[in-house]
Amino acid sequence: MNKQSKIVSIALASALVFSVSFQFAPTVEAKKSKKSHKSATQSSVYYKNCTAVKKAGKAPLYKGDPGYRSALDRDHDGIACEK
Questions:
Q1: Of 72, 2, 47, which Cα lies nearest the Cα of 80?
Q2: Cα-flanking dihedrals φ and ψ of residue 45, to 5°?
Q3: Residue 3: CA atoms inside 13 Å, Cβ hemisphere, count?
Q4: Same structural domain for residues 32 and 55?
Q5: 81 near 60, Cβ under 8 Å?
Q6: So what's the pLDDT on residue 28?
Q7: CA 20 to 30 Å from 75, out of 16, 27, 43, 62?
Q8: Within this chain, do residues 30 and 8 fall inside the same structural domain, yes or no?
Q9: pTM of the model
Q10: Which residue has the higher pLDDT, 8 or 20?
Q11: Cα(26)–Cα(10) distance, rounded to whole angstroms?
């Protein structure tokens, strides 16, 4: 391998590393912002019991939904206030 080929190989490898880093960085940031938004939404919704959930027309609640909490999920299957 001559000197010019080595330089091209190093340049391509550097470009590949930069490209991979650049492509994944926004994805990680997007996931972080989704998680923080989701947590804020969940903490702002509270149902005293399943009757309140049903009156609000939100039953059933799935794990991750605003207002879901394990105390409302009797069988701990990730679905609260099942009918």
A1: 72
A2: -115, 130
A3: 0
A4: no
A5: yes
A6: 46
A7: 43
A8: yes
A9: 0.49
A10: 8
A11: 25
Question: Longest Cα pair distance anywhere in the chain, in angstroms?
Answer: 77
Same domain, 49 and 33: no
Concatenated DSSP letters for 10-75?
HHHHHHHHHHHHHHHHHHHHHHHHHHHHHHHHHHH---SSHHHHHHTT-PSEETTSTT--GGG-TT
Number of domains comprising the chain: 2
**24-80 confidence digits (pLDDT tens):** 545 444 444 444 444 444 458 999 999 999 999 999 999 999 999 999 999 999 999
Q: Give me 66's structure tokens.
A: 């605003």
What is the domain extent for residue 5?
Answer: 1-44
Same domain, 33 and 51: no
